[in-house]
Task: structure prediction
Amino acid sequence: MRFLFKTDYEDDIRLFPHSGHFVSYGILLAFLVVAPFVLSSYLVSQLVFVCIYATVGVGLMILSGFTGQASLGHAAFLAIGAYTAGYLQQYDVPFLVYFLAAGLLTGTIGALVGFPALRLQGIYLVIATISFAFIVEEVLARWESVTHGNEGMRVKTLSMFGFTVPRDGPTFYFLCLGVLILAIIGTLNLLRSPTGRAFLAIRDSETAARSMGVNVSLYKVKSFAISAAITGFAGVLFAHKLSFISPEMFTLLLSIEFIIVILIGGTFSLHGAVLGAIFLVMIDPFLTYLKDDLPGIIAGVAAAFGAGSATVAKIQSNVAAVASANGLKGAIYGVIIVLFVLFEPLGLYGRWLKIKLFFQLFPLYKRATFKRQKIYVKSERNR
Amino acid sequence: MSYFRADNLSLHFGGLKAVDSVSFAVEKGEILSIIGPNGAGKSSIFNLISRIYPPTSGRIFFEDQDITQQPAYDIAKLGIARTFQNIELFENSSVLSNLLVGRHRHSTTQLWQEFLFLPSVRASEKVHRRRVEQVIEFLDLEAYRDKLISGLPYGVRKVIELARALCSEPKLILLDEPSSGLNVEETTDMSFWIRDMKTELGITVLMVEHDMSLVNRVSDRVIALNYGRVIAMGTPSEVQRHPDVVAAYLGA
Result:
């Protein structure tokens, strides 16, 4: 086990508390830098999606994980970012300008959404954000002069400082990675300064936060704005990656995917946002596997157990029907969320912490360390 | 003019008069205790002062300033800190970050500076950290700095809540039952700390307390409440002998 011997207040502030972190994050960074040159283009493309989803995850984590305000409307913020990019690009606005404009616009709209949300809590806030997402979806479909309605919008290849950056090239990957890293570092900086602590205070006890001088309303609006702005930045990258955007891409299901990112990854930690994004991006290949290979495999197993050829064909077509049924994705998401909430409420990052502790304490680890316990001294909240 | 003054303060919930035109004054540097049976309106007075409830009528003055209409977060900025009867800590954070929230009213950094963690933010963080360390030393909390609140016993949480209030460097501190749930030894510690807060840190203390031995040990003056009304005011021994107080506690 490692004991940190702190000799300076700096030790409580620095981002990497001990030298071991430089090694592990250094290795990770080295891998990420080499990745586009050694991995197949399919995997690099998946990594780009991980970066984009993780950026949204970081944004949503600020709002839901750290400030405690649930949101099912982040697909709308992503859409606003994406459409800002698509729209401004038609007028040959340079990338950096429309990238920043997208963040600014989404942040402003996020703050505006934050105001009515001040009076809402819990499930009511979720409903309010869902309605916001529906409004945005509808506006995107109807405001044809700007968004081209349901026809959708082509997004041209990104060009920066006179260079074109193709959406499946390494440069685009580095761009997404850079945005993700900046978002993470910015958030970490926020968390070690008064604003971030005010967010955490609001999450745990609004009354206490208020009595310590935190302007709760102001900080909730700030949290909404920051969260939305980061999502807006991700939206620009999302638009470029897909090269085509249309309203039906930014549905409730996408918002639920973002909730999965932070819930599965582990609420309350930025590691969780990244792990959750990796998990989510891996669901799609899994679904493809279900559709393409699973019916054949099950039919093969049935044949091996001596089923007749007619039965085998029937089994295969039935399994194929189930595996390619509409809405299967939503159902799988639902099952995943329920299972994680029940059995691993701290998410993938929580599991990682447990594994790490197991090896740190090797023969002495007790399962009860992370057991959820009933707290009897829970305070009566003044609401 | 008194340092802190409540003028005909009332709080009615429908027909129930939780606080019924209560007036009292606190002088700078004194320790004033409010006692009274359950439901007498003691905590309600605190919640009125820290603006969790808006008063039905009456006014509150602090340092000659009318604070009755100030928003709740401004009360702390004026230098009035409080603790809660049922601990209100930030459960999922470490002790250090709980205490640093107490420093919130002194933070001057802007959002964009914090995003970049500019040297100015770093410098002010170190100042906050040093102040927090002084409070940690004052209340003997060295062993708990990096612990999560959710894993700490009740007695320690109580002290941490006091520490969080002290971190804001208040001029007036409101202690809502500082000894509830503490054992004899911890209560003794608490009484020394309350005394030291007055003599060493120069903080004015207004406290609600049930433990009469603690009240006797630390208070300069005592106010007794019953059914939302002031029934006696004076030194601890005067108030305890007052016939109305005896009647309120023991029945007439």
